[in-house]
Amino acid sequence: MSAPAALITGGTSGIGKATAELLHSRGYRVLVTGVSGVADAGLPEDVTVVRADARSLPDIGHAIDRARRQFGSLDLLFLNAGVSRPGPIESTDEAAFDALFDINVKGSFFTLQKALPLLNEGASVVFTVGAGEGLGAAMTAAKGALLPLMRALALELAPRRIRVNAVSPGLINTPAYSKLGVTDEMIDAWAGDVPLGRVGTAADIAEAVAFLASDAAAYITGDDLVVSGGMGVHARA
Prior knowledge:
By secondary structure, the protein is α/β, with parallel strands linked by helices. Helices cover 43% and strands 18% of the residues.
């Protein structure tokens, strides 16, 4: 029997890259997509890296076709590609609004649609959701759209025994923060608010995704796994 195969969108840095490395170490055949850092992603040589913009249906189709030719089928689809455009409603222009929904929502929806013929019975689909609250109305709306989408798809794909879940990272130190102007000093200060006393790593989320993809999660679908060091509990207390 051939090794399991995974396709990870947004897999050239941060959470996607950490997940690709972890799955590869556990025997998966892995294909990742990205729009930046593709040439120097630093992934193992036998991890396939495909340049694809999540907003572009032709790019999505190209990545899926590459997975079809290389793997034949998929056991995991990790819909991790996303973008942050924080800001209040007054400063949110149409381009920022469209990017949030095109990449975070539209890209995930059509990647899954095009990948469906490749998904084996019993395959796992995982969305990266994360927080939008406190980052502005448009960001909150785009992130908030993913959970009901995930739950609807979990019901729709259950007859095929395809499990659909989400992972919601809390405060995770990834390159995305530096792009938003967040410094290491700021992140260290935020760590004091985390009940477990530290900021999370991309590897923490990778382990959660690997669990949701595994047989250990065979009875889990339509659920959101919050990985926040206790911040999720803290927010509801």
